[in-house]
């Protein structure tokens, strides 16, 4: 019986080739780059083809410098001047920060009388000398909405 010859060890070129092949097989797949999130709300606004920033609001805002509003919040009653108004809400100029979850607002509409609506505060602004609060109107009836739309038409 003949003894088997010992197996040859890979040397030189053969060794380099086998190392390269094994390195290719075990390499981890590249991860896909995640899209970057915008840094601020300003970065999230869409730009139109003309390069202007588009407004993402649901409703058009109307300036309302002569509109006075009485706010009934718990045991307190405040009167404030409106800065602007829309079908969805109103911004009231004031020096106080809102603390209630909802308030009853009475909008004094001049010749159209007054309109009572429930509203919730959604934004407080206390910066650079401009104080106020933005309110979102809640559950307006069809009659209330009709009155508000008529008032807004007169502001246009």
Q: What would your notes on this structure say?
A:
By secondary structure, the chain is an alpha+beta fold. The chain has a domain of 94 residues: predicted glycosyltransferase like domains (Thrombin, subunit H, Beta Barrel), CATH 2.40.10.220. The protein has a six-stranded antiparallel beta barrel. A hairpin with a 3-residue loop joins β3 and β4. The longest helix is centred in the first third of the chain and has 14 residues. The radius of gyration is 34 Å and the shape is globular. It starts with 12 loop residues before the first helix and ends with a helix. About 8% of the residues have low confidence.
What order do the helices and strands come in, and which of them pair?
Layout: H1 13-26, H2 41-44, E1 62-63, E2 68-73, E3 76-85, E4 89-93, E5 103-108, E6 114-127, E7 130-138, H3 142-155
Antiparallel strand pairs: 1-3, 2-3, 2-5, 3-4, 4-7, 5-6, 6-7
The run of helices and strands is: HHEEEEEEEH
Overall CATH architecture of the domain at 62-155: Beta Barrel
Give the CATH class of the domain at 62-155.
Answer: Mainly Beta
| Shape category | globular
Give the low-pLDDT segments. Answer: 37-49
**Percent helix range:** 10-25%
Instruction: Work out the strand percent.
Output: 25-35%
Structural class: alpha+beta
Short key terms for the protein model shown above:
156 residues, Thrombin, subunit H, 3 helices
Short structural summary:
This protein has helices spanning 13-26, 41-44, 142-155; strands spanning 62-63, 68-73, 76-85, 89-93, 103-108, 114-127, 130-138.
């Amino acid at each position: 019986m003949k003894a088997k010859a010992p197996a040859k060890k890979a040397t030189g070129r053969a060794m380099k080739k086998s190392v390269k092949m094994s390195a290719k097989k075990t390499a981890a797949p590249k991860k896909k780059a995640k899209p970057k999130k915008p840094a601020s709300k300003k970065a999230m606004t869409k730009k139109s083809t003309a390069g202007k920033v588009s407004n993402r609001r649901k409703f058009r805002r109307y300036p309302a410098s002569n509109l006075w509003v009485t706010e009934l919040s718990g045991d307190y009653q405040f009167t404030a001047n409106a800065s602007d108004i829309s079908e969805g809400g109103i911004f009231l100029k004031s020096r106080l920060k809102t603390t209630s979850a909802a308030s009853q607002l009475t909008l004094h509409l001049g010749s159209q009388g007054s309109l009572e609506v429930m509203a919730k505060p959604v934004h407080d602004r206390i910066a650079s000398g401009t104080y106020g609060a933005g309110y979102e109107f809640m559950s307006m009836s069809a009659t209330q909405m009709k009155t508000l739309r008529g008032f807004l038409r007169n502001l246009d």
